[in-house]
Amino acid sequence: MSWRYFNPNPVGKNVEDCTVRAICAVEGMTWSEAYHLLCDMGNIVYDLPNANEVFRAVLRKLGYSRHTIPNTCPDCYTVAEFCRDYPIGKYILGTGTHVIAVINGNYYDSSNSGNEVPLYFYKKEND
Fold it and tell me: 3-124 adopts what CATH topology?
């Protein structure tokens, strides 16, 4: 269980597109496919593609359900620990300011976010 560098941006930019990157990782989409999916939903609900409402709607459409992280240690439970506790499945973690893809116990991001503290997660159902 470890960090896997992941930046599917076609020109290598690291531009606050963590929602796009996370969807790419868990769904096997290209950056453009994930970006357009978010933009299309944003157009439907009249919000920006990285808005929480848009992101949540896209994940529900893709078959994800939202769960909260137990509040036993709200400031010390990390992404790396989540990966240890959930070694099987596809997840998207939200920290409040960042989104991280987790696949079978490894976290995929453009930087090592293993020490960040997740607040909630989405789990891919029936996968």
Answer: Cathepsin B; Chain A (3.90.70)
Where are the domains positioned within the chain? Answer: 3-124
- Give the side-chain half-sphere CA count within 13 A for 61: 12
Structure tokens at 58: 């896209």
| Dist CA 14 CA 5 (whole Å) | 12
Each residue of 74-114: pLDDT tens digit? Answer: 678 999 999 999 999 999 999 989 999 999 999 999 999 99
C-alpha span between 115 and 80 (Å, rounded): 7
Phi, psi dihedrals of residue 117, rounded to the nearest 5°:
-105, 110
Neighbours of 22 (CB within 10 A): 27
Residue 76 confidence (pLDDT): 82
Q: pTM above the 0.90 mark? A: yes
